[in-house]
Amino acid sequence: MSRTIRTTGALAAGAIVATIALSACGGGGGGGGTSQAGAGSGTIKVGLITKTETNPFFVKMKEGAAAAAKAEGVELMTAAGKFDGDNAGQITAIENMVAAGVKGILITPSDSKAIVPALQKARSAGVMVIALDSPTEPQDATDALFATDNFKAGELIGQYAKAAMAGKPAKVATLDLAPGVAVGRLRHDGFLKGFGIAEGDPSIVCSQDTGGDQAKGQTAMENCLQKAPDINVVYTINEPAALGAYTALKAKGREKDVLIVSVDGGCTGTKAVQGGQIAATSQQYPLKMAEQGVKAVASFGKNGTKVSGYTDTGVTLITDRPAAGVDAKDTAFGLQNCWG
Fold first, then answer.
1. Which domains does the chain have, with CATH numbers?
2. Model confidence, pTM
């Protein structure tokens, strides 16, 4: 079933572009441009292109793809951008994979619009294309999308924050991603809906961009505290930004009386929830995205069956301080299912 989905996901920092292959009968991760493409005629080849190589979210995605490729008896090729936003690197990876004869490409697009012409060329060449985590614009530029509903992820932490405040007047800081990036907009808008306020509401006393970076999150929180020292709720785009905010609040002796909520559910972030630095986070599941994507390409290669539309790979609110009326799992569950 096809529908427009409010999604996108993890944030990242630099890595080198590298195309590698994992044979179905072994071979772990690795880099350096070594390729086994063509090792065995008739082998179904699957391409995975992530935004970067180093972000734990994409590392876990790659692990899931490798495990699924081995289970399905297909060959996996992987590539990544040098940095989040490296559209040119992703285009090169697409071209290399099409030339290598992949049946399908799984991609987390760095630029949801600029990547579309390259994906259209791949599809015209008979390659099935599945977006993971981040949709293209338009969404139907790919055959299918396997991803978290990030609007829902934001909405969950907004509902939690509202319930946790228990009627106390809120002074909200939003530590966002960057202008024009879908993941930032969706999580931010979801949080506002969950909290029951609209953009421009007077309870939002500060908004700063962080790029999803811990150091920038700290600086953003410091700026917000200068502007509005009585902030008591902090929404963050991801857990690195949340930990940066916590550091700034602790320096001011405010860490115990400010509610911090976030999104991602990586192991570091989940441990921060367990330790009390973050009150709650919405956990997403990159391994599941990649596993399902590889299986879909394997099926296409074996019997010509194409997937279509959107597959929601799930999101769960994680907290050890449950709030009335908001469904959540504790950090024991979160740590069993985290990544990174």
1. 20-148+286-307 (3.40.50.2300), 150-284+317-337 (3.40.50.2300)
2. 0.82
